[in-house]
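Table S2 (text version). Query chain:
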Amino acid sequence: MRIKATLIGGILASGLLAQHPANAAGPACPRTFTLALHEHGLLYDDTTHTGIDTDVAEELIRRSGCHFAVSVMPRARIWKLLETGALDFSLSGIADAERDQYASFAWYFADKFTLIVRKDANVHSVADFENNPALKLGVIPSFRYSAAINRVVDRLNARSRVLDTKTYDALYKNLALGRIQGLIIEPFDFSDLDQYRVRHLVHIVETDDTPTPHGVIMSKKTIAPDQVAQWRMLVDAMRADGTLLRIFRKYFTREQAEAMVNN
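Corresponding structure-token output:
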């Protein structure tokens, strides 16, 4: 089963509709659920409609048997709709104190954040970047990171050294033009360095970060606690039977995939 997306009224709508088996164990399917993807490196490519989150969504839909309307939208809008209950699900979400107020999570991978910096910025550590007032960091609005990286971003933002950029095209263009000198990426973003032709301009600055869990996001306004537990069991089963590892192996080496799925 593949997510076959067609442009309808500016929203990508999926044809993934499956009949929920009668009396089957698992999440209840009282209606058609809504699920939103966001374009982000290997998580989801809007030009090919493929990626890790596409594969995970397909498997969740297949196993649950529930009907889903799948769309693609900016991450900032996704979080707002989850908060109001206008959206039921999204994927690869990171929790924080604010999000925990309106969303539940079912973790399916964890990874580390890396600082990518222009070579001509003469930066060899996160501290070097923070201590140079001439340097700016590019971010996508509403993106949050690990607790340690969030503190760095928040300190830079307080000093007016963070440039919000709504699209990846603009983000990497700003990096290429020197409007920003650094950005935070994850393992599934490394392919973007080649796609946007900036790899030769940058180098990796290790952050000594710890892996940050990412999960299926469920709106507390629409998904009751007992149903959250059912969806978590479904995700846990995908990990236990090797499905998550097989999905991540499509995009990473076995060592990388195992580290992300088993963390």
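Notes on Table S2: The chain is about 35% helix and 20% strand. The chain has two domains: 5-111+213-262, 114-205.
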